[in-house]
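Suppose you are handed a protein chain with no further information: no name, no annotation, nothing but its sequence. What can you learn? This example shows the usual starting point.
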Amino acid sequence: MTDSSKNRLFQHATLASLLGGLYEGSTTFKELLTHGDLGIGTLDSLDGELVILDGVAYQIRANGEAYRMKETDTTPYAMVTFFEADFGFDVDQLTTKEALEARIAPLTQGPNLFYTVKMTGNFRIVHTRTVQKQSRPFLPLMEISDDQRTYTLEYITGTIVGFWSPTYLQGVYVPGYHLHFIDDLRKVGGHVFDYEILEGRIEISQQTGIEIELPQNTDYLKSNLENPEIADQIESIEKDG
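A reasonable first move is to predict its three-dimensional structure. Written in structure tokens, the prediction is:
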């Protein structure tokens, strides 16, 4: 890794491809991890949530449990970066998701850039959800979005990782915050839709560039990903719980 690789966002595939039901793994973790050591995404056949932390990829299955991925395992969609914090601060009292986001916002250079987020600490509560493995023929994401399991993790130490993406690129990226959690024991986690932190360290990096790698499999090349309702669908899928 060169210095120019740090804090450059790499994404394999697009949000639009997931919305369209393209869940077949199209890159290996061996390849993906050459582009970053921190990230999020999903797994082949939409088999759970992906957390990449310290260069290791973990699958959070529908039961909420974490498993380490092999180099030969694949993903249809992931975002990664070589993370190096540009700024950070400590939290030493109970802070809600909304309060923490309000504290972060004025420290950034505005909502038109990409940011990586890493929150490490003791959480009073983390609300998570996970998707269940799908079978062919794959249905569009909207048709299976209600078939998710939610979990409430209380008084747990771990790390929330993810990205802030600007609204004007929705369809390629999830607009706003997109966060996943894994605990310190690497046993449980999931997609985060709410949290409260008791104490910990918040680190943010501004991404200096973005790269999108498009799948080359038949499903992606032959699918019609035009979707005039994409904004409403993203909002529906990403809403709390």
